[in-house]
Design goal:
Helix content is 27%, strand content 38%. With 81 residues, the chain is α+β, with helices and mostly antiparallel strands.
């Protein structure tokens, strides 16, 4: 099973927020997922993300691939810690 760490869109029209999830690559964007490991709110000023870096490391070690946006969020989370 190919696993990806990516964003899942939630919220209302014109006010989205995202959950950082671990999901099968074949499942749809807002479909079934394995685990929620963080959140991202692009409309919030300042620090607008929260990510469990330990869980990200666990999943990457087991073969999960991050999307470009999630990779950027995780990089910022590591710098903030």
């Amino acid at each position: 099973m190919a696993v990806a760490i990516r964003l899942r869109r939630e919220g209302n029209r014109n006010s989205p927020y995202y959950k950082v999830v671990v999901a099968d690559k074949r499942s749809p964007r807002d479909g079934k997922f394995i685990e929620i490991i963080g959140s991202y709110d692009p409309k919030k000023p300042g620090v607008n993300f929260q990510v469990d870096v330990a869980r990200v490391d666990h999943w990457v070690k087991n073969g999960a691939q991050m999307s470009d946006t999630v990779r950027s969020i995780v990089k910022k989370a590591r710098q903030a810690a």
